[in-house]
Amino acid sequence: ISGTASGAVGAAKGAIGVAGQFARGAGVQTDLAASVGRGVELHSKAQDIVNQLKLNGKTPDAGEANTLVGLSRSVGNDKGIAANDVMGVLGDFQAKSSDLDTGKAVLADLAELAKATGTSFVDMGAAAGTVNSQLAEGPDKAKQLMAIMRLVTAQTAAGSVEMADFASQMPKLASAANQFGGDYAENLAQLTALAQLSIKGGAANANTAATSAGNIGR
How far apart are CA 187 and CA 181, in angstroms? Predict the structure, then answer.
């Protein structure tokens, strides 16, 4: 973080302390200090994502951190999710796939899909980031990713393996899907279906089921 940014964060933290002291001294019930703290945390997470972009050899757009803050707040307000949680999902997506642009493009759709299916937004984002890391670059990448996530989510809703478990096992399945010829999305759909069948067939847990499905054809 730049010296200017560090100074701003320090000043904001100082403001939190002053606000808290004022509220206590005046006997006023207020969440101002907490709100300021959440704002500082949100901007800090945004800056962390921008710094990671730079470490990956990319040049962020001017004001990218503010753009991420605005996006997280917008999605959060629209979907009823804390902005800091939205930013956390975006940061995890970027860490898993090094593809912030696609993450930004699908963030609201992932939040909506998670909400509609009762799936944890964190689990949904983690699974999507892993799948995205295996997709080829192209103008329809975001659209392709969401088609896959809707299919996988439908399978978890109807099957025995929950999305929370699939999220942790998705690296195995996403990587295995690339080992076969043909359409990647169709391969992944078949492997996730096999994982569900493995659980029904007696596999001890999601890890065993995903490993069994991923070893098909090897």
Answer: 8
User: What is the distance between the terminal CA atoms of the chain, rounded to a whole angstrom?
Assistant: 47
Query: Quick one: tokens of 120?
Result: 């944890």
Rounded-to-integer distance, Cα 189 and Cα 54, Å = 34
- Helix (H), strand (E), coil (C) string for 80-116: CCCHHHHHHHHHHHHHHHCCHHHHHHHHHHHHHHHHH
Q: Which residues contact 1 (CB under 8 A, 6 or more apart)?
A: 9, 44, 47, 51
* Identity of residue 140: D
Phi first, then psi: give them for residue 62, nearest 5 degrees.
-60, 130
Task: Render pLDDT for 159-198 as a digit per residue (tens, 0 to 9).
Answer: 666 777 777 777 778 888 878 888 888 888 888 888 777 7
Q: Quick one: which of 167, 174, 208 has its CA closest to 191? A: 174
Question: Structure pTM?
Answer: 0.73
